[in-house]
């Protein structure tokens, strides 16, 4: 049997199992008595059938596969792989003694806690009865434990006698497998990267095609088969197309939650032509809306991930429902599931107050133990949604000091970028940025140019100046690397370089390194898309403008949206002479003082606190260094004003707090 296995598995040759000619071999006991095909016992002795053994007959119906394990001696030629007593389990098809539901559930639980393939093999040695679904589950578990970067971490695991014995049985009795066991075994084989043209794979695919043609597979089985064919042949698979046709004939409203999630995941892998499955997806969305309240963490995460891949922007009501359900599961998500949930919420631009509260409670408990990618995604989420949570940021900052050495360059950058974007310094800021400097010094070459620029730019937003590394960024070599990433350097990247250069000039007078060449500088930070300035809120601006006209007496006494020589755009500029009198905006001589009025709408603050975003804070800081008197008009103060008179009084107090106001 072992010899046949080696000859029938050409794909095992790549893992070191060679075909060696051998003489006749004897399988099982030395007794001359005939063997029962059903139970691997001699019919004269220990056969499990009282009236003699029955040979298994091929049947067009669906049969149950139960593998009875018998530890018998196996004598083979010395040049072949021997299966010796108690070394590996021996599997054989029988129609009797199928494990009970409780036994299968217990096996699955024990399988789930196996942390190595060796433990899986040990578990298989310990069981006496195994169904085809249990055998497939064991292969899946081995795949989960051995997969790494689209390959097996240790390909020699396929040389294990236990794996080979399992595969031999699946090949030998493929026609007798249940539909569920058949497609699950096929999918497990794809996850173990077995050769699609091996005898085992060809038989499983052929048998699956026959079952598919009968049209009796459940939705869950169709999805499993679809995933397997997707792995074998890709989205263009003819068999996969037949699977989708069968699924489309079903009624999503009658599917279970597990079936619904399975179809979403299959569609996620296909990502077909736009609109190809629109009707199916719309029906699925409608059904999902009714069952989200009963979904477990894996289902919520899987569904959100699928909606992102399928770009179902029209399904926002479903996204909102899933987010509400996610609130309950925040402490129970695995790292991978939470990463997918946060990624989906960022993709759809949605955040829920209760979800944020749940994260604020959970993050301090996981910052030191969760996967670095999950922690980075947490910071990315809060940064992208402009949500400032000291509880989250302080916990991550504390863990950063101890864990950053194990973070990738991207993970380091994404965590620090969140601090910079929201303009927040944690209590241990000195330790955090000391760690950042150490990482930059020891791993500078590991950072991609864009990633490095994002990191350094985030530092200056919170007044942490990476002077030791600016000279490298302004070097022709680094700028050339930036240009290699894009044929033309994006305007947003040039704006970051320009602001870094201005920061060095204004705030680091001791810097004597290379300067940024003029051709890499922008003239304005206010651009469409990724801008280093937030455009003024039109409604708030008009209200302030009307108040200024009443206060100053004429529109000519202030300028609007004035571009300064240092790239910043002023919402309103007011010029004063030496005596404090207001000059016309067009006046260029004898200007003694300039007032920069910052009309700060909601978008210039974090969403949950009255704190300026990092890019607005650095703008006002630089304007002060350039000699402007910065006067801030925050929305939350202006909104309290009830009438024109109160507006004028407010503006006068802001602009001229020490002078008496005249009435025009």
Automatic annotation (TrEMBL):
Any GO molecular function = RNA binding
What subcellular locations does the record give? Mitochondrion
Q: Which InterPro entries match?
A: FAST_2, FAST_kinase, FAST_Leu-rich, RAP
- The reply on keyword Mitochondrion is yes
GO BP, sorted A to Z = mitochondrial RNA processing; regulation of mitochondrial mRNA stability
Q: Does the keyword Mitochondrion apply?
A: yes
Organism whose genome encodes this protein: Acanthochromis polyacanthus (spiny chromis)
Q: Which residues form the RAP domain?
A: 595-653
Pfam families xrefs:
FAST_1, FAST_2, RAP
Q: What is this protein called?
A: FAST kinase domains 3
What are the UniProt keywords, alphabetically? Mitochondrion
User: One cellular component GO annotation, for this chain's record?
Assistant: mitochondrial matrix
Q: Which SMART domains match?
A: RAP
